[in-house]
Amino acid sequence: MEVNGTANILSSAYLAVEFVDSFLPENPLQEPLKHAWNHMLQNYSKFQIATWGSLIVHELIYFLFCLPGFIFQFLPFMQKYKIQPDKPETWEKQWKCFKMLLFNHFCIQLPLICGTYYFTEFFSIPYDWDSMPRWPFILAQCFGCAVIEDTWHYFLHRALHHRRIYKYIHKVHHDFTAPFGMQAEYAHPAETLILGAGFFIGIMVFCNHMVLLWAWVAFRLLETIDVHSGYDIPLNPLHLIPFYAGARFHDFHHMNFVGNYGSTFTWWDRLFNTDSQYKKHYSLHKAVKSD
User: Fold this and answer.
1) Residue 145's CB: how many other CB atoms inside 10 A?
2) Which Gene Ontology BP annotations are present (predicted)?
3) pLDDT digits over 168-216, tens only?
């Protein structure tokens, strides 16, 4: 019964996306992208695309999205948007973070990435251009993946804060009480595996093309780097996403250590009232600011 209910929900969601998609114009970049994609398929094997392509996508997007936050520290006019201005980034902190990232990316995540080809083969996930869904479907699937990952992240993240195990694993991620973008994947190797597992659940539910895997990687990295950026930038397009947590919400988690356990959305924290200290803190902050 539960499986049928889930299938009906997914079918309704796809019908809604199809309806919206019917009103949207053709993508002007479709032909260049088609040419580039087919060129990749003709010159590289599926294993090379799945393994080295996924590694390049991850590394390129991660450090590209980290770049704006890295530059912000040198721009005086951006400091008014820094959430904890009394705790600036230092070269020492950033170098410590970078070394841990290299270890996690190449010693923990790379072996997992090497399994991508076998994952796509097991689930018969296509690579060809003709099977690729249009971008509204990809966006909808990424949103679905984010909902699943956020649920996994909330409960496992909250469990990692339990006083009996916190100091052994999750404390590493809290080395910095004022986060910065590059710190998004700074974590104990065990945490990388535990919380990272949530990333793959959505893929197993929604993935119907190799491009979704890369799109979900891009979206998840953009989101986690944004919430760890330490800057509350006005007119941030990610804030258009319903119930999006954002940098200020997650920054408080690093500053306070308790509450605000969600990764992308705020609904689980609202439901379980684990954002109560955050609400109290920022209502006081707004009152002081208005005075």
Assistant:
1) 27
2) lipid biosynthetic process
3) 999 999 998 999 999 999 999 999 999 999 999 999 988 889 999 999 9
- Mapped onto helix, strand or coil, the DSSP state of residue 231 is strand
> Measured between alpha carbons, how far is 66 from 52 in angstroms, rounded to an integer?
21
- Check: CB of residue 66 under 8 Å from CB of residue 154: no
What is the H or E stretch that residue 196 is in? helix 189-206
Quote the CA–CA distance of 173 and 253 in Å, as a whole number: 11
pLDDT tens track for 208-266? 899 999 999 999 999 999 999 999 998 899 999 989 999 999 999 999 889 999 999 99
Q: What percent helix, strand, coil does the chain show, rounded to 5?
A: 70, 0, 25
How far apart are alpha carbons 36 and 161 in whole angstroms? 45
Give the mean model confidence (pLDDT) for residues 156-160.
97
How far is 62 from 108, CA to CA, in rounded Å?
Answer: 16
CB 241 within 8 A of CB 262: no
Structure tokens at 129: 């251009």
Bridge partners of 90, per DSSP, are none
Quickly list H helices, 50-188: 54-72, 91-103, 110-113, 116-122, 135-160
> Six-digit token pair at 218?
């891009």
Quote the crossing angle between the two packed helices 54-72 and 210-227, to the nearest 10°.
Answer: 20
Distance CA 21, CA 27 (A): 11
Q: What is the 3-state secondary structure (H, E, C) of 33-86?
A: HHHHHHHHHHHCCHHHHHHHHHHHHHHHHHHHHHHHHHHHCCCHHHHHHECCCC
